Amino acid sequence: MRETFTKSMARNIYYGGAAFFFLIFLALTFDTVSGLSKTDNSQNLTGQVAEGKRLWEKNDCIGCHTLIGEGAYFAPELGNVFTRFGGSTEAIKAFIKSRPKNGIPNRRSMPQFNFSDEELEAIAQFLKYVDGITTARDWPPNKQG
Prior knowledge:
Layout: H1 7-36, H2 47-58, E1 66-67, E2 70-71, H3 81-84, H4 89-97, H5 117-131
Helix pairs in contact: 2-5, 4-5
């Protein structure tokens, strides 16, 4: 082997490494894109679901709850709340409506947001939509969230 490192050797290493990592990038991109079609739930996306998402963000629900593992761990995971409540949007709406006005003394509790019936339905539809998302890790790991 030569004892000197020439410009042409450095150039060949540079171009070879760049080509190698570009091919790795393409392979990983293809793998990710091919896996996305398995988790697509967009056919169930309606205006009501989008409104529920806007209410979720406006009221900072993620400040207390997690959704598919993202958010705060102060309150339960809501990625499977539709399943937990027996597949009923009515049960979700009833739970949200039943929150006491000033909370429960000396306990952490969900506040009363005083949502209208349309807003409650939108939030329930959003949580139903989220429950239908197929995650790669089968999240949440248990029924309780």
